[in-house]
């Protein structure tokens, strides 16, 4: 049961009024495999979390389902590539720690190209 919710079957509402299921709770609701699904353009929940600027959710997703890091969308963009393009260092570092995480990007680029394009030298 969700605390603070009048509905027993729905997850808590976010500040935008949309409902989301945090990764640990997804399993409780039988959504473990659903979180791995890709949409019509090949993006999964991790792609959307990173692109949408939801860093905490992205880190939760990576911790709960590292396999999300393998997926590439129809533009050949991996979650790691998107994180590098958005200068999301904490997400990028977490994805880099997963040995099988995809690093591909669009137009033949990869995460190294994305980091260089954004002026990220890798030094603090």
Automatic annotation (TrEMBL):
Entry-linked Pfam families: Ank_2
Gene3D superfamilies documented for this protein: Ankyrin repeat-containing domain
Positions with biased composition (Low complexity): 1-13
Chain positions covered by the region annotation Disordered: 1-23
The protein's name in its UniProt record: Uncharacterized protein
Organism of derivation: Oryza punctata
């Amino acid at each position: 049961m969700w605390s603070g919710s009048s509905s027993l079957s729905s997850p808590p509402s976010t500040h935008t009024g949309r409902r989301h299921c945090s990764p640990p709770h997804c399993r409780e609701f039988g959504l473990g495999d659903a979180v791995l699904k890709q949409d019509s353009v090949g993006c999964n929940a991790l792609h959307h979390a990173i692109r949408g600027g939801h860093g905490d959710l992205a880190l939760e997703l990576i911790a709960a389902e590292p396999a999300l890091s393998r997926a590439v969308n129809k533009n050949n963009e991996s979650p790691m590539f998107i994180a590098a393009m958005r200068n999301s260092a904490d997400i990028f570092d977490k994805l880099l720690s997963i040995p099988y995480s995809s690093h591909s990007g669009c137009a033949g680029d990869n995460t190294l190209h994305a980091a260089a394009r954004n002026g990220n030298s890798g030094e603090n």
